[in-house]
Amino acid sequence: MKGKKVDNPLLTYIGAIISQKKVPKSFGLSHIKKKKEINLKSFYLRESYIDAFADSLALETKLKVLNLSRNQLTTNRLIKILLKLPRGVKELNLSNNPLVGPEAWQVMAEEVIEQPRFKLERLILEGCKITDISLKPLAKAIEYNTMLKFLDLSHNLIKD
Fold first, then answer.
1. Which of 38, 103, 49 lies closest to 72 in space, CA to CA?
2. Per-residue pLDDT in tens (0 to 9) along the chain, 160 residues
3. Which end of the chain, N or C, is surrounded by fewer C-beta atoms within 10 Å?
4. What is the DSSP string of 27-91?
5. Which residues of 42-80 are buried (b: 16+ CB within 10 A; e: fewer)?
6. Strand order of the sheet with strand 122-124?
7. Beta bridge partners of 65
8. Which helix (H) or strand (E) holds 19?
9. How far apart are alpha carbons 113 and 143 in whole angstroms?
10. Core vs surface per residue 15-29: b (16+ CB within 10 A) or e
11. Are 22 and 55 in contact (CB under 8 A)?
């Protein structure tokens, strides 16, 4: 891209995908409400897009809100995203991704929630079929997290 540099998470993402020659067809990234937000609610992030998407996230320095709700994320896809999540993200919405397993929630606990370098304040995990087993590492990580102010675990499979 030539001309004035535009600081926009969507353009960063598209630029990273193009540079890797992984241009998604009809991806429709049109849900960007604010300059520091990527809202991919109800998009289906296919396996072929995840690597490029995760790599582009790592390049994004000003992203504050990431909404990946209703994306049919799997355990492996979410892990790839979490490992590249920018440190400045304050809100992460992963709601209604019921295909995510305990391994991804373990990575979330260890690599995001427990790490003081992250500024995560709001975590939305509604309707992810989180069980008591998956909740244990999250609960332990949250116990020591001083940044997290809002956590939504509603509509999960938590019994205790």
1. 49
2. 455 555 666 667 667 777 776 644 434 443 445 668 888 898 888 888 898 889 888 888 889 999 999 999 999 999 999 999 999 999 999 999 999 999 999 999 999 999 988 999 999 999 999 999 999 999 999 998 999 999 999 999 999 6
3. C
4. -------STTEEE-TT----HHHHHHHHHHHHH-SS--EEE-TTS---HHHHHHHHHH--TT--E
5. ebebeeebbebbbbbbeebeebbbbbbbbbebbbebbbb
6. 37-39, 65-67, 91-93, 122-124, 150-152
7. 37, 91
8. helix 9-19
9. 10
10. ebbeeeebebeebeb
11. no
The DSSP output letter for 131 is B
- DSSP SS3 for 158: coil
Amino acid at 66: L
Answer whether 129's CB lies under 8 Å from 101's CB: no
Q: Distance (Å, rounded) from C-alpha 29 to C-alpha 31? A: 6
* CA of residue 81 relative to chain centroid, distance: 6
Q: What is each CA distance from 83 to 3, 11, 35, 36, 158, in whole angstroms? A: 32, 21, 23, 20, 26
Q: Which residue ranges form the domains of the chain, and what is each CATH number?
A: 9-152 (3.80.10.10)
Q: Taking the CB of residue 132, how many other CB atoms lie within 10 A of it?
A: 12
